Amino acid sequence: MSSTLAGAFGIAALFVAVLALVFAIQAVRAQTGTTAAAVPPPAPEPEPEPQPEAKPGTVKAELRKLGKDIEVTRAELRDTVQHLAIVRYDAFGDTGGKLSWSLALLDDNGHGVVLTSINSRADARTYAKEIRSFTSESKLSPEEEEALETLRKDAGPTVA
């Protein structure tokens, strides 16, 4: 008999053995009455009871301390400047390249500053205006208003 024919008979015999094993497992399950459908669903987990305060120096105590520190840090971050918008433009008709700009830097409460630089051929002037709750006591240029409006819209739910 050739080796190719012997190999084919070997594979066929292996297939028949695996098929017989599957039928045997099904027969055992049928006799004991345990099938995948007959297994009851697991009972719902009871609510965990409040844990007692962890001993100082343990991993649990350190994790709780870190969680509290994160909350304090998040509260402090609300007062940091983290929102930025810039508007570039040509302030004068005889210049190009949009070298003039207005930059708004605000925190989550809409407090911060608007910086503006107006560039001409001869010089450049820079202005800073304080912003409180998205408004200023100083008169704002249209470009400064545009930068503030961009932050008011784009900052999302964290900015009031």
Question: Distance between the terminal alpha carbons, to the nearest Å?
Answer: 87 Å
Shape: elongated
Q: Mean pLDDT, nearest integer?
A: 79
Radius of gyration: 36 Å
Tell me the structural class.
Answer: alpha+beta
The biggest sheet amounts to:
4 strands, antiparallel
Question: Helix fraction?
Answer: 25-40%
**Strand neighbour order, sheet with most strands:** 1-2-3-4
Tally the helices.
3
Q: Strand tally, please?
A: 4
Low-confidence stretches: none
Beta percentage is: 15-25%
Order of helices and strands: HHEEEEH
Question: Can you walk me through this structure?
Answer:
It is a single chain. By secondary structure, the chain is an alpha+beta fold. It is built from 3 helices and 4 strands. It has helices at residues 3-32, 59-77, 142-154; strands at residues 83-89, 100-106, 112-119, 124-131. A 4-stranded antiparallel sheet has the order 1-2-3-4, covered by helices on one side.
Q: Brief description of this entry?
A:
The protein has helices at 3-32, 59-77, 142-154, and strands at residues 83-89, 100-106, 112-119, 124-131. With 160 residues, the chain is α+β, with helices and mostly antiparallel strands.
